Amino acid sequence: MATASVQARPEQQQAENHPLLRMTGISKSFGAIRALKQVDFDLRAGEVHVLAGENGAGKSTLIKILGGVHQPDEGRIHLRGRLLRFHSPREAVAQGVAIIHQELSLVPAMSIADNIFLGHEHTTGGWLRHQDQRQQAGRALKRLGLTADVRQTVGTFPIATQQLIEIAKALALEAEIIVMDEPTSALREPEVERLFACIHDLKVRDCGIIYITHKLEEVYHIADRITVLRDGDHIITARVAELPAAALIRSMVGRDLPESARDATVPAPSGRQVRLAAQGFSVQASRRGLRPLVEGVSLEVRAGEIVGLAGLAGSGNSDLLSALFGVHRGRVAGRAWIDGRPYRPTSPRAAIRRGIALVTNDRQRTGLVLGMNIAANMTLASVARVSPAGWLDFAHEMQLAERVAGDLDLRAASLTQPVATLSGGNQQKVVLGKWLNAQPRVLLLDEPTRGVDVGAKQEIYQLMNRWSRAGHAILLITSELPELLMMSDRIIVMHRGKVVAEFDRAQATQERILHAAMGGAAASSE
Amino acid sequence: MSDELKSIPSLSPAHAAWWREALRNPVFTAAAAFGLVLVLGLIFSGDGAFYKWGTHRDALRQASVYGILACGMTVVIISAGIDLSVGSVLALVAVSFSILSIHWGWSPWVAIPACLAVGTACGAVTGGIIARFAIQPFIVTLSMMVFARGMAKYVSGGMKVSTAVQGADGTYSYVDVPEIFRLIDSRLLGENLSVVSLIFLACVVISWIGLSRLRWGRYIYAIGGNEAAARLSGVPVGAMKVAAYGLAGLFAAVAGICQAAQEQQGDPEAGIAYELSAIAIVVIGGTNLMGGRGGIGLTLLGTLIIGYIEKILSINAVPEANRLMLTGVIIVAAVLIQRRRV
Question: What's the pTM?
Answer without folding.
Answer: 0.79
